[in-house]
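agent> fetching stored inputs for the pyridoxal-5'-phosphate docking request
agent> found them:
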Amino acid sequence: MNGGLVPWSRATTHVSAHALHYGSGVFEGMRCYETPDGAAVFRLDAHLDRLYSSAEIYGLEIPYTPAELSEAVCEVIRRNDFDSCYVRPICYFGSGSLNVHPRNCPVEVVILAWPWATYLGAAGLEQGVRVTVSPWRKFQSRMMPTTAKACGQYLNSMLAVRDAIDRGYAEALLLDSEGNLAEGSGENIFIVRDGQLLTNDDRHSILLGITRDAVLQIAGDLGCPVEIKALELDDLLSADEAFFTGTAAEVTPISEVDMIPIGRGSRGPVTQEIQRAFFAATSGRDQRYAHWLHSVDIRRDEDNKSFSLAQAFTPGIVECG
Ligand SMILES: Cc1ncc(COP(=O)(O)O)c(C=O)c1O
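agent> prediction call returned; pasting tokens
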């Protein structure tokens, strides 16, 4: 937290923090996986690139270099002795002023990590999840930049997922302002039709997911044709298969949408193959994707300016809630 290691119970911020009042923060969600070479963060560089892009859009100047944050992410995982975990870097405007303009508010930078199993349930990964079309629309990208991962933007997702769960579904699917498919509350969507993968892009108000990008590359490597285009709800309802992608949800099949089964109402063969290849990549079993894994154990200290948490660290204070 702001350059030092802090126990979970003391990782607090002031109630006057700008971000608490206005949602003025940006964050990332990454997963660290157990691999034969030790713990490794999946696509750490891509996540940090997106963090810095999100920050730039909102005028947050992150007072660390990407190399420093990269090392800090690894240090948090190492110090907690996690083999696998979820990692949440967050940068936000702290306490300084409650003007809507965040002038005089310091930028706070925190990296949290905790063990996190499957997001939509282990059974969901195999059998698929039940999804509902949300009454809430995804905000249009000229209202807020959907390609940025910013705290306040998630109120839209929260409304959608709460409504879905209240009505007995696992996840919400949001349409964009024109009624095309956008994405889940925390996932991108893919459809399979006649052996072809279909997905949309940022013209439909989505966050450009890093898992989405990984799946696009994996599909290419599997020789599976992909088309990126606007998707209508009918495309989904008449699809052979559909699945969500996201760091938290990984690759999760969609079994039904508002009681209408997708395909046979269970995980389809193409989804299963993509899942298999994805988990082979994240677990380090497929060497073709080794460049996506950032080993936590290797210190990249060649750069003299590299971040040294060791200086700020007091042994014995790390605990995780
Ligand atoms: C709204 C939204 N869309 C899509 C995604 C998937 O993005 P990624 O694969 O980078 O986790 C996420 C998760 O971060 C999300 O919150």
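agent> quick read of the result: Residues 302-321 have pLDDT under 50 and may be disordered.
agent> awaiting further instructions
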